[in-house]
Amino acid sequence: GENVEQHPSTLSVQEGDSAVIKCTYSDSASNYFPWYKQELGKGPQLIIDIRSNVGEKKDQRIAVTLNKTAKHFSLHITETQPEDSAVYFCAAAFSGNTPLVFGKGTRLSVIA
Amino acid sequence: KAGVTQTPRYLIKTRGQQVTLSCSPISGHRSVSWYQQTPGQGLQFLFEYFSETQRNKGNFPGRFSGRQFSNSRSEMNVSTLELGDSALYLCASSLVSGSSYEQYFGPGTRLTVT
Q1: pLDDT in tens, A40-71
Q2: Are the beta carbons of B45 and A46 separated by less than 8 Å?
Q3: A96–B42 CB contact, under 8 Å
Q4: Which of A72, B59, B89, B92 is a plausible cystine mate for B103, CB 3.0–4.6 Å?
Q5: String of DSSP letters for A15-83
Q6: Nearest by CB to A98, which of B42, B56, B102?
Q7: How far apart are CA A67 and CA A106, in angstroms?
């Protein structure tokens, strides 16, 4: 089955700097890669996703890149703000037919 | 549109008891998935229901079960609770139509087993 590795497990950045979180997946059939943000006491919130027919997707300060050959994808957050502090999870699945398999999460701290 | 709602939000049970958790998906969403979240294991898939049928099942013992009703609301049940069942139980709903299969999570039910 699918296995998703996520790095780093913790990340501290200064406000205004960029943050990058990386994930690798094992199943080449996976074609859907969402990213979730989880704040304390809340459920994970879908912030961006990418499908395997696209190499990069941007939404304001966040972007995701996908390298199908290497089977890895990354989340990029630019101009970080204190409210970006949270735990971020990557996941992988094959369309809507298989369950999402999550990475272990990255705790991002943005220091003002 | 209202988001995914889960009840109750917090629950304390004693080892050996059973518990039922409820999830109401986003209006129009027909798929409901359940996940267990713990600090050690992260987010682990329990099962998915689509149109009242279990479509996928994770690697959890038979003490964990679920069902979905005709209005897409779902419940999960855990029987003979163990201390290790203490976790945040998350429900996620999805439209699952064409290329729309994004999952949206509820706030979770925090279960503590003593």
Answers
A1: 999 999 999 999 888 999 999 999 999 999 99
A2: no
A3: no
A4: B92
A5: TTS-EEEEEEES-TT--EEEEEEE-TTS--EEEEEEETT-SEEEETTEEEEEETTTTEEEEEE-S--GG
A6: B56
A7: 20
